[in-house]
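Morning F.,

Quick status update on the modeling queue. The single chain you submitted on Monday has been processed. Sequence for confirmation:
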Amino acid sequence: MKKVTLLAILISIGMLFMSCGSKPEAESTTEPEAPVVTEQVGDESGVESVDNESSIKKVDDARALAMEAGADKYAPELFAKLEELYQSLVNNSEGKDVSAECADLAARYAILADYAKAKSTKEKVDAEYLSTYAESTYAEGVDLLALVEASLAEEKMDGDVAENARNAYVKFNKVYLIAYKLIAQNERSLALDAKNDADSVKASVSQKERYKAAADEFSAGDSAYSMQNPESAYNHYGKSKDAFTELYADVYEKRAEAQRIMEEAKKRVEESNNFASDADVQAPIDEPVEGIEEADAVLLEEVVYEEAEVVEFEETLVDEELEGYEEIDLEEAEEIVAEVEEESSEVEVSEAE
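Structure tokens below.
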């Protein structure tokens, strides 16, 4: 019994020492993180902000091009409706994404712009009887323009209409360019002939400033032609032709007058020499007499001209775009167009009856 009691006491003492030797866990000194509060930035009215600036600018640009092309003149009703859509879009775009609506409206303005350009270019072609220079291309343009006008009458303005409007303008513009290139080349040839005439009387020497001005006009024509502006080229060539023609006439007239004076002077000298010869036979004079020239005296000095500063140009301008096209007579073109218009009016009258 005493042994059991002693054993129990020893076990208790051992457990007591074990509990005293273990260290208590250290308390955490890290303070909990404060929650991050994010403040939502937005319109004070509570409406979410949307940036439509770039989308609206695209509409503004397309609208400006349509107005410049004359869309309000050639399609006034449709243009007015687009203007109503434009104002509504601008006034009600705040707080919502209108990029899709802007893209659609810009495309509609672009269709009217191309349609207006096609109409105005066709008018210029018709007014100057230029269609005969490229009849097949002109006919293609007419067909495309008819398709566009039929679609616009139904207020249909989709991708097909946009393509037809663009192609119609391209066709009429090609006719216009081809015609004026041929006309400009013909005018250039005439200007070059006039220049050659001026060179033949050495106008570059006697009238340097006027000659240079005429040559500069010719060069300006070549420059405009290379920049795909044949109408401007034609105008420059015309001015150059007129300047060289006037220059040739003035110099030729002055040279002719000078030549006449020289011929008369030579004639008088010959008459004087003949008279002197007769006098020498009848009453020879052996000593020099004051006022009478020696027999070998030079009465007329020879006129020596400066070296002509001639400006050289290419005889022809090579333009691959004109292959297959030929110059035509404008009077003949006017007669052809008049006949077509007369036939069209007769058809309209018969249909009306």
